[in-house]
Design a protein that fits this description.
Elements: E1 12-16, E2 33-44, E3 47-51, E4 62-64, E5 68-70, E6 97-106, E7 109-116, E8 126-130, H1 138-147, H2 154-166, H3 170-173
Antiparallel strand pairs: 1-2, 1-5, 2-3, 3-4, 6-7, 7-8
Length: 181
């Protein structure tokens, strides 16, 4: 069994570049280590909280000890380490939903036809999206389900869930107004 190094707060460490989802198109030319970074505190025996600068604001500051390497003092007099280039995490673009146009059940999953607010010539104005991918647009989905009660939506899932739970005959429910199965 390998005993992990015991770092102290304030100590400088290198962070393995594999632990960060960087914007470089290929990792072949990237350095293996990022930093040096300062340790803020020990979280557990195998986890450390690092002091990160603003350029790292989207990166979670706690890392496993296997991603860290201690900075060794240079034996060459007057040698200074150059600061590393900024590392930017890949941005996850999220488009704003203008409105939900339609919904359907496909292989037991709820899908919405979405119209996007901003789009360019290269992207589509509408697309079919899983209900789970619209979790940041609850008001738009809620409006659609309210104004289109006969379309599959959140109420459909409640009916299917509780119907199965209570052993109801769902074929009788499909003729009910506002319920589309």
């Amino acid at each position: 069994m390998v005993i992990p190094p015991d770092f102290q707060p304030g100590e400088k460490v290198w962070l393995a570049s594999k632990s960060i989802n960087a914007t470089r198109p290929t990792t072949n030319l990237s350095g293996r280590w990022l930093g040096p970074l300062e340790l803020f505190k020990k979280i557990k025996s195998h986890a450390y909280h690092l002091k990160l600068t603003l350029q790292w604001k989207s990166v979670h500051p706690v890392f496993h000890v296997s991603w860290l390497e201690p900075v060794k003092k240079s034996t060459i007099p007057n040698k200074h380490q150059l600061p590393p280039p900024p590392v930017l995490e890949k941005e996850k673009k999220e488009w704003e939903v203008a409105q939900v146009l339609d919904s359907k059940l496909k292989k037991g999953k709820l899908w919405y036809l979405v119209e996007w607010k901003e789009f360019n010539q290269d992207s589509e104005r509408t697309s079919l999206e899983k209900a789970s991918s619209l979790k940041n647009s609850p008001d738009v989905v809620k409006d659609f389900n309210y104004f289109q009660p006969d379309k599959p939506g959140t109420n459909t899932w409640r009916v299917l869930f509780y119907g199965a739970l209570w052993g109801l005959d769902l074929t009788k429910l499909s003729s009910s107004p506002g319920i589309h199965i």
